Amino acid sequence: MKTYIATFNQVKVKAFLQIIPHYPHIITDGSTILEVASESGVSEQPRSLEETVLGAENRATAAARFGGDPVRDMGVGIESGLMDIGARMVNVCACAIHLENKIRGFGISPGFEIPPRMAALVRQGLTIREASLEVGFTENPNIAHEEGNVGILTGGRVTRTEYTKLAIMFAFIQLENSKWY
Asked: Is the pTM for the entire model greater than 0.90?
């Protein structure tokens, strides 16, 4: 089995690689793990839970097909997005796992509210990265590939890697407990 991760974002790749030791019965030592380009099929800045989930699923499916054997190969799609909950805008991360020619695992991270000034700019059409730079929240144009907004807001107590790992681990629940799904 080959595992294709539908991203070149090293935060997401690192998160996936860090959870592998917890799942040796699913991803064995010596398995080939490759990063691949994959389109999400959704907007650059997903703005709903449904769009975020669809982006993760689309990436996972495209990644599994990358090697030509979507039955045996695993595709992992990870998509971060925003959703409005009343007046609040919440950031979440979704992970979908494509295996045996269908989505076999899905998980979503806990969400956190983004600051209202950034939310207002996102509602005007900016990405969260652009809004973060615009309001002076960060000067780091690579924030999405490093600590993420969650890292700044929590003072480093929760990094983007940790936040992403939760979505991935939650997606592995269905693979570990397939008799219930």
From this structure: yes
